[in-house]
């Protein structure tokens, strides 16, 4: 079962725990505004957090105190971090970090030292990579280590596409037709070897053959084709939820946000889910997660609250009655469970 949920907003990191069916929220001040977050599955109190201009930080006490990571990441803007669930070396799960401008780094000693993987930038599509709000640059938005094969890793460039390596980042394959180039997040499912799910600015795309071929599926989304986060039922690889908006303008800023959670089951068209969730106006984009220990359960968090679904995303309930007023105008970033 899930023992704790973490998310970041503003200059704080928040921890949500459950005790005798009662959920509680704890706020911990961060040394900098965090942009991304990951948990070590072997050491559940070890957290890795990236910042916009202040490097990568590590906590060994569940987020109470933080120290900067070791040297080797030569860009200060760390916008993605992932801990491999399958590759363990000398007692440490391998950690991957992505930066702006786009570079990829790997640590095999818990973040003490880092190795750079430059061949990601040798791909033919690289001259076309760009991030529209900062058009002179681009970044590694998401890192997805393969759940079934420690040699494979998928990297989402914003805006560039999904790149794949089959030898732990040494060599890379370029984006494939049918995938989405404005990649925001990816996920996999423990029951579906080779299946990759992508939420992107142009909708939903997936590969069922380890990234060799892709197909985009937007039936039912209507104008809500701007997808930001995605989660899959651990018990059913065909049950998917995503957070959606009509575009970037209405996705992130709570002051002008208008977003919704969408759901697809069994390959059927997407449908908007409203039961137990806030009205879309003023509701910024949700961060979503599922956990393999809880079949049929999803969690969602945004500026208006944290929610749980126990029926595979069909209906939702708010977990905390006393939601901090300070969060209502904040963008919530990154959501992880342990």
From TrEMBL:
One of its GO terms (biological process) is xyloglucan metabolic process. It comes from the Bacteria. Pfam families: BNR. Transmembrane segments: none annotated. This is Glycosyl hydrolase. It comes from Lederbergia citrisecunda.
